[in-house]
Amino acid sequence: MLKKSRMAVSALLALGVAGALAGPWAAPASAASGQVCYFGECSASSAPTASTQSKARLLSRHGSWSAVAIGQGAMVIDEFDNGAKFAILAYPNGRFGLLLTDPQWRLQKGQRTELSINIDGQVYKGEAVVNKDGMLEVDGVSRDLLKALYRGQKGRIEVASYRFDMNNLADAAAAINAVIAHLKTASR
Q1: CB–CB of 60/175 below 8 Å?
Q2: Could you report the per-residue pLDDT of 16-67, keeping only the tens digit for each?
Q3: SS3 4
């Protein structure tokens, strides 16, 4: 694996986030050996671990949404009234993922479940897998979903019998903008 400077990796991440929100949309990828595809994108699992989470730094807060720098990547997190959290993950390699957790859940590592996200009537479906930290993880998210989250008004996440309403996605867009601004600055 080639080593890259932190600034170069951050620049690639910023371009990846900006491209996901404004660029042309690529066709969904097909799974290669050792990869899984969810929500139209394929990759190997690479969610943040407990050790990388300790390096998280709050960039800004917008309503229930937060922009967080984490290592060489970033997260945009929505916190719900019941303590549940939804996160959009931006990895240094330009890929994206999702995490969802609820303090009431007692899930087993490797458990799989159907997850859907409805944004202004457009539904995105995929399979989430419980990672080693007990969070539902969706690895590899389509740029169409990211664009919908960025430009949407309202959203709903459904998994099993649980429902999570995102009522002000403008706050999500503001948090995403804060992540992009941070990554552009860090890449200089």
Answers
A1: yes
A2: 444 443 332 222 333 344 443 333 344 444 444 444 444 789 999 999 999 9
A3: coil
Q: Answer yes or no: are the C-beta atoms of 152 and 169 closer than 8 Å.
A: yes
The Cα 53–Cα 69 span in angstroms is: 10
Tokens of 107: 């899930």
Between the alpha carbon of residue 28 and those of residues 17, 90, 96, 140, the distances in Å are 17, 18, 13, 10
Residue 28's nearest CA partner among 118, 145, 117 is: 145
CA 36 to chain centre: 16
Amino acid residing at 89: L
What angle, 0 to 180 degrees and rounded to 10, lies between the N-to-C axes of helices 143-151 and 169-186?
120
Q: What are phi and psi of 39, to 5 degrees?
A: 50, 35
φ, ψ (nearest 5 deg) of residue 77 = -120, 135
